[in-house]
Amino acid sequence: MSHPSPRALPAPGGWRWQAPNPLPRPGLARHAARPADGKGTGIHWVRTLVAKGAQRLAPEHLRHAPLNARVPRLHLIALDTSGSMRRGGRLAWAKGYAARLIEQAARAGEHVALLSFGGLGVQLLLPPGPARAAGSERVRPVGGGGGTPLSACLREAERLLRKVQHRRGAAGTDCLWLLTDGRTLEQPTAPAAAGHIVVVDFDDPLRPIGRCAAWAERWQAEHRLPA
Length: 227
Description:
single chain; Rossmann fold; 2 domains; 6-stranded mixed sheet
């Protein structure tokens, strides 16, 4: 996987929601596809027999049970707040990206959690739960500075994902969004509990070091620029 060519960061107005690939877009049911007739996932036999009456069973008598409730996917956002992210306005841009992820997840009926990692260590700013547009306000006061405890953050992400999946009773397709400039010498392993990982690359577009792309390739993750 090659690193995209360097370019300036786009204006916030150009941001648009993109679901992690190759998973379905947030908001779509994952457990079973709706039948072509769009009526449901199984036959409701009581209602079918009432509709049939004394006649021979025919396709027009069939009544379908409603779709099973969809289990929302968790989008766990890990925001790099280290000192290097303060250069060139990268932290402000990453905070805006995280806020928009939360807002869009809320519209899609998904769940979110937000971790920050920097000079103050790893902090849980938003615990796992249903996404609410108001949750984006938790990003605004976040400051930056210090080192980049990336490995500690990914260990905490693994713990949170496993806790949510244990409570839910299924691994699901939870997604980790790592928002970072890659300015660390740590070489962490990817959280095994993440069904999909998106590395959003906030590296210096004029002098990139390419670590985000390298991690994405090693983790078999998706690599994005914050476009």
